[in-house]
TrEMBL record:
Chain spans, region Disordered: 232-251, 534-564
Functional pathway: Protein modification; protein ubiquitination
PROSITE patterns: ARM_REPEAT, U_BOX
Domain annotation U-box: ranges: 158-232
Gene3D superfamilies on file: Leucine-rich Repeat Variant, Zinc/RING finger domain, C3HC4 (zinc finger)
Highest taxon above the source species: Eukaryota
GO molecular function terms attached to this record: ubiquitin protein ligase activity
Keywords: Repeat, Transferase, Ubl conjugation pathway
Protein name: U-box domain-containing protein 12
Role summary: Functions as an E3 ubiquitin ligase.
Record field: compositional bias (Polar residues): 239-248, 549-564
EC number of this enzyme: 2.3.2.27
Length: 564
């Protein structure tokens, strides 16, 4: 761990010392470097520092294991730092020691005997300090591997493993799902997260969010099992005050739970009917959307995105689209790993499924952090494809999703490289003109990116944009002007082109009668045209330098060339 920490520190220092903002690299690369640097900084901050005091206290107790007089203050510190405050924790330590004894061939070494004495002292101190723990609790907590429990001697029903919390190993009262898809008892996972852990205890997968979702299906199954086996159903603690709840009736909750059981059924017909009904319920009202998410439907629907049955796939992606209308559900859908599945549907699904997948990505991308995730999982190329060959509705859905995603700078280059500029230019020149608004809005965003600016200029956009400023709607005029402002920045060829195409009159009109943004962009463009005209006039009036002076001038440096 120390070696890894040293390497992390060296990498963080090396990256931190590079003035990459002075290098001729794209904004996307700069953002990637910043992201990596911030990850190294977080990793450096998470490393635990050695606890010398803990080590000394533990060694002192280890060396004096046969000494009956041990300082209670030392024991109190050890109990707290080693988190051995309860009988369950102490039992786990006892089981670990039992396994060590077994590994030595039932011949415990001296160090294991000493460790056992240390553990007994700590256990005795805990029981003394916590008198409310009764003897029955102690007996129940004393079971190690290879020993029979008290419950087993009375032939109590064995609790199914799926009903036990992986952390506490107790029957769950309030099961909740974390972003890795695993289920835990709410109180146990909340303590785990509050302790600063950022991974799933069972899978060690990094949790993308601390949000937990109630698992109503499992809670219902646990209640049924308790009733069938004569076990008192566990009382669920009060709901968290921050948790959103629905106003659905118990009967409606029961309907939703039955549908979720069908989702996990082996019958394709059951899954098809269940996804179709959930799709309609989620469309109907906000209470249904909350209740369906609370019941744990999102991970189940995500699993169905990869099903070979196109009908189930279409229902599943549409249900997720409808659920995403609820703001609280947007993060839950992404943290449940839905984005790769939605992208898969966008590539391979039926036309209606592709349209709804694009609409779902648009809805999810309202949250800024989701824009990065969606772009990372390769959603942009299939969105560009849908923008090109989809139905009118599909093109609209793809355009709105692309617009939202390209607000994030890192996605702009991906969209340009996916060929979106050529597609947008085609939409601008369609006879019916049904996508002009969307095409110009996306071009206005992409023109601020170096790759976007170059590609738009090379696609012959200038005449089309001048025509829009002359004849388009107020909103389209402002977007066309915004694109030309970027294209004409530092490019005299485009400045010459727009003047030759007669843009001055329409620009003056836009300054006087356009929208606020349109007036601002038209003013900027006029200023650049006038500044260029002044420079040209000055160049024509300046006397030509003598030829011997021209020959004596040094050749331009690389810096001069770059500045040009």
């Amino acid at each position: 761990m120390n070696k890894f920490h040293q390497v992390t520190t060296q990498l963080e220092q090396a990256l931190g010392g590079v003035h990459y903002e002075e290098l001729d690299i794209s904004d996307e690369v700069k953002e990637q470097v910043e992201l990596v640097l911030s990850q190294f900084q977080r990793a450096k901050g998470r490393v635990d520092t050695p606890d010398a005091e803990l080590r000394e206290d533990l060694l002192s107790l280890y060396r004096k294991s046969n000494d009956p007089a041990i300082d209670p203050a030392v024991l109190r510190k050890l109990v707290k730092k080693l988190q051995l405050t309860g009988l369950y924790d102490l039992t786990q330590e006892s089981c670990a020691l039992h396994d060590m004894v077994t590994a030595t061939g039932e011949d415990p070494e001296e160090r294991i005997e000493k460790m056992s004495l240390v553990l007994r002292k700590i256990k005795g101190f805990v029981l003394t300090e916590t008198p409310e723990i009764d003897s029955s609790s102690r007996e129940k907590s004393s079971t190690c591997s290879g020993q029979a429990s008290i419950e087993a001697t009375h032939k109590a029903p064995v609790i199914p493993d799926d009903f036990r919390c992986p952390i506490s190993l107790e029957l769950m009262k309030d099961p909740v799902i974390v972003s890795s898809g695993q289920t835990y008892e709410r109180s146990s996972i909340e303590k785990w997260l509050e302790a600063g852990h950022s991974t799933c205890p069972k899978t060690q997968q990094v949790l993308t969010s601390n949000v937990v979702t109630p698992n109503y299906v499992l809670r219902s199954l646990i209640a049924q099992w308790c009733e069938m086996n004569g076990v008192e159903s566990p009382k669920r603690p009060g709901s968290s005050p921050n948790k959103s709840t629905s106003a659905c009736t118990p009967a409606e909750h029961s309907t939703i739970e039955n549908l979720l059981r069908k989702l996990t059924s082996g019958s394709p017909e059951d899954r098809l009917s269940a996804t179709g009904e959930i799709r309609l319920l989620a469309k109907r009202n906000a209470d249904n959307r909350v209740a369906i998410a609370e019941a744990g439907a999102i991970p189940l629907l995500v699993d169905l995105l990869s099903t070979p049955d196109s009908r189930i796939q279409e229902h599943a992606v549409t249900a997720l689209l409808n659920l995403s209308i609820c703001e609280d559900n947007k993060r839950s859908i992404v943290t449940s790993g839905a984005v790769p599945g939605i992208v898969h549907v966008l590539k391979k699904g039926s036309m209606e499924a592709r349209e709804n997948a694009a609409a779902a990505l648009f809805s999810l991308s309202v949250i800024d952090e989701n824009k990065v995730i969606i772009g990372t999982f390769g959603a942009i190329p299939p969105l560009v494809t849908l923008l090109s060959d989809g139905t009118q509705r599909g093109k609209k859905d793809a355009a709105t999703a692309l617009f939202n995603l390209c607000i994030y700078q890192g996605n702009k280059g991906k969209a340009v490289r996916a060929g979106v500029v050529v597609t947008l230019m085609g939409l601008l020149m369609e006879p019916q003109g049904g996508m002009i608004d969307e095409a110009l809005a996306i071009l206005a965003i992409l023109s601020s990116h170096p790759e976007g600016k170059t590609t738009i200029g090379a696609a012959g956009a200038v005449p089309v944009l001048v025509n829009v400023i002359t004849n388009g709607s107020p909103r389209n005029k402002e977007n066309a002007a915004a694109v030309l402002v970027h294209l004409c920045s530092g490019d005299q060829h485009h400045l010459v082109d727009v003047q030759e195409l007669g843009i001055m009159g329409p620009l003056v009109d836009l300054v006087q009668n356009g929208t606020e943004r349109g007036r601002r962009k038209a003013t900027q463009l006029l200023e650049r045209i006038n500044r260029y005209a002044e420079q040209q006039k000055q160049a024509q009036t300046e006397p030509e330098a003598p030829i011997h002076n021209q020959l004596s001038q040094s050749p331009p440096s690389s810096t001069d060339v770059l500045e040009c």
